Amino acid sequence: MSSVTFETQRAALADVVAIPVTPFAEDGSIDQDAHRALLRRLLDGGIRILTPNGNTGEFYALTPQERQLVTELTIDEAGDSAVILVGVGHDVPTAVASARHARELGARMVMVHQPVHPYVSQGGWVDYHRAIAEAVPELGVVPYIRNAQLYGARLAELADACPNVIGVKYAVPDAARFAAFARDAGLERFVWVAGLAEPYAPSYFSAGATGFTSGLVNVAPSVSLNMIEALRSGDYPAAMKVWEQIRRFEELRAANGSANNVTIVKEALASLGLCRREVRPPSKPLPEDERAEVAAIAAGWSM
Fold it and tell me: pTM (2 decimals)?
């Protein structure tokens, strides 16, 4: 399959790639109505690419049936108004089944979560992604890279075998390493998405990224869009003004090894009355004495 057919998907990745939360009902199940309302809020706010089953959606805390439900709800709610990049992962058969399910529902792309395994070899990384990409040749495939040991040449090797590997969500917190990796893999060959969201977007854009992921976008879509507009026009001072605006919120999310990454987002949404604050283990809701600061930040954005 020629890469020409993936132009729509490539263009879609060069944007704010929203990672929606998965809201839970009082009984602990997925709150489908709240989920649809939050998705609608993102779409109405101008977001054009959604990643169901991303890390902000608590991918690893959902059952296989729940991950299917999240995919179905997202594709149904978005209709033609957004491109859907479905998160898949775990063992190869599970990832392939999820990717095929996404394809059946009309999704155009899948994001492959980093292999969660204590022993990942470079060649094994290629084999893992190749098995998934070859199973769905019609879908654009976006590896989610958090492995600082991986060489850019390995990504090029994967794409040589699988032309549907069209973009990369790069989430190693090192802008110099990203710049080198992208050039070793092929800067023009892939769409580079800054996978560590707004805090890293300006430095990664300066090195070649054209999109960034966001969990904050659940709370304030306009803030994320302001940043990408500044970055697209090369206005780094304007982008850094947004960076200053979101700095504290993102520092709270990143603290203690990102222990409260999703917790802070849900707390902000709860403070705005948009969903319950509950997260699943191994995450934990924010203690009561820490909630006021998050609420104040969210209130400031929604003015």
Answer: 0.97
User: pLDDT by residue (tens digit) across 87-129?
Assistant: 999 999 999 999 999 999 999 999 999 999 999 999 999 999 9
295 pLDDT exceeds 60? yes
- List strand residue ranges (DSSP E) for 165-257, in order: 167-170, 191-194, 211-214
Place of tokens 């089944």: 97
The 3-state DSSP composition of the chain as helix, strand, coil percent (nearest 5) reads 55, 10, 35
Model confidence pLDDT, tens digit, residues 221-250:
999 999 999 999 999 999 999 999 999 999
User: What is the number of other CB atoms lying within 10 angstroms of the CB of residue 256?
Assistant: 8
In whole angstroms, what separates CA 269 from the centre of its chain? Answer: 18
- 24 contacts: CB under 8 Å, gap ≥ 6: 30, 31, 276, 278, 279, 280
Q: Tell me the CA distances in angstroms from 122 to 31, 127, 153, 162, one per residue in order.
A: 39, 9, 10, 16
Spatial distance between the Cα atoms of 263 and 270, rounded to a whole number of angstroms: 10
The enclosing H or E element of 88 equals strand 83-88
